Amino acid sequence: MIVIGVGNDLRRDDGAGLAVVRELRGRCPPDVRLATCDGEPVQLMELWNGADLAVVVDAVSPASGPGHVHEAAELPTGTHADTSCHGLSVDLAAELGRILGRMPGDLRVYGIEGVEFGFGSGLSPPVRRAVTEVADRITALACDRRS
Amino acid sequence: MTHRHERTLNIGALARVEGEGAMQVRVAGDRVEEILLNIYEPPRFFEAFLRGRAYTEPPDITSRICGICPVAYQMSACRAVESACGVAVDGPLGDLRRLMYCGEWISSHALHIYLLHAPDFLGYPSAVEMARAYRPLVERGLELKKTGNAIIELLGGRAIHPVNVRVGGFHRVPTPRELRGLVPGLRRALEDALATVRWVAGFDFPDLTFDHEFLALTGEEYPLERGTPRTTTGAAFEVADFEDEVAEYQVPHSTALHSRLVHGGRYLTGPLARFALNRDRLSPLAHEAAADAGLGHECRNPFQSIVVRAVEIVHAVEEALRVIASYEPPPPYVPVRARAGRGHGATEAPRGLLYHRYDLDGEGLLTSARIVPPTSQNQAAIEEDLRRLVQDRLDLDDAALTSACERTIRSYDPCISCAAHFLDLKVVRS
């Protein structure tokens, strides 16, 4: 099992996924790999390729409310907008991974709704609370798999 | 198509962490009246972040400017600080820096060639669609990128925003055995890189020729982590004179400063400039691959930059193998004591010359910083290329013309091309 936190610590709530990984250090069973990624699809594919379960945590755009946590069994396909060259997009990584046969056995995605994505560090309070909630859920998931 | 007296193409809402911008093309009758490329570059904020920070911090802080070329920022930062402190880092430590830079070139160029630029030539809207039809090719590109990343991870601690680089050298240097572990991957990469040159050389390139002056580092070797700035008209100057020779200026439509040569004008930096000024310093196989690909003594078609990038991957792989073959572990760093003064550093990032200048006080704190990234330097040249492109293709409809503009912008690599992938187009006619 691997947990991959995606994001950018210098764009405030975009660092939510990275914060979750920091919270998990020392808490998860030792066979759980923890990794961070800026969303670059090739790196994502390399990280999750061959894992029996990959958990991806990323910040998502506001919809329901700041700090709201979405959980899904896969990344959506066909919605990517090729938003960059450095960072193509996370869902594009999944689509490319499927075409190239570089996907984990199982994939789980946590999206934390952010509110502040400007320059600077530090999470907004609702996202900070959501980070702890997601870290708790992942810890429980990792422990369940061992039992 | 119907006759259009006046046409305006707006490409806007470019949102990227590394670069944000927009493009507007205004055509009146049969003449292109205005091309405005608006690129927003965060490095300006980093110059402010750096003030008051310790002289040991710029490599780590500036590496955050870009996720694709953090090594370039670290190397230019180290050279600038070390020059301020009167220290030169050469020999085996310099070779290790060069090796790490090779990793970044391989990784960055492979990403651009295979996932960003090639779809344009093969007629696919994105790498995903291209991968369905050309899976083995895309996998070859990903393997190349992985090889570059492996070098950065070993020397830098991690591929994105490496943490093992410090002023004076590295926190830790690898063992010979660790470096030798890279060799099998690099040998495979050499074959893949040569195949990449042959592949992209066969693409159908749009007809466009520019006459910009080129600016690149030059020296005894093909430039990566060091060199002396030189232009195609033969003018060479010391890195310390960069700000006397290159003038940055503001334009109303862009928050990123444009650049011009004080004694020349508009210029271009990047792979095409490096190749024009350093072709004879390419590694033997890279030199041969360039000739076989039909590249002459210089290349002035921006679309063919994909071929030059492929040639540079061959060079970087060969250079990496050369460094590893002669490696003897040095002490990890040269002590660098702070002193008041000014220091300059210039290296060749994947997309062009990257200049840093720092002023230090007697306590080793930065009192000012200046960073001139290649993307900013190239803005004026890109605008001129777009002007020529549009002027020669006014018979195209707006959609085709916009697509051609986006392709042109992508030829210059990441910071701009990334944004160009998701432009909202607005066409205004009157």
TrEMBL record, chain A:
Pfam families: HycI. GO terms for molecular function: peptidase activity. Keywords: Aspartyl protease, Hydrolase, Protease. One of its GO terms (biological process) is proteolysis. The keyword Repeat does not apply. Belongs to the peptidase A31 family. This is Hydrogenase maturation protease. It comes from Actinoallomurus spadix. The lineage of its organism: Bacteria, Bacillati, Actinomycetota, Actinomycetes, Streptosporangiales.
From TrEMBL, chain B:
Its cofactor is Ni(2+). Keywords: Metal-binding, Nickel, Oxidoreductase. It comes from the Bacteria. InterPro entries: Ni-dep_hyd_lsu, Ni-dep_hyd_lsu_Ni_BS, NiFe-Hase_large. Pfam families: NiFeSe_Hases. Belongs to the [NiFe]/[NiFeSe] hydrogenase large subunit family. This is Ni/Fe hydrogenase subunit alpha. It comes from Actinoallomurus spadix.
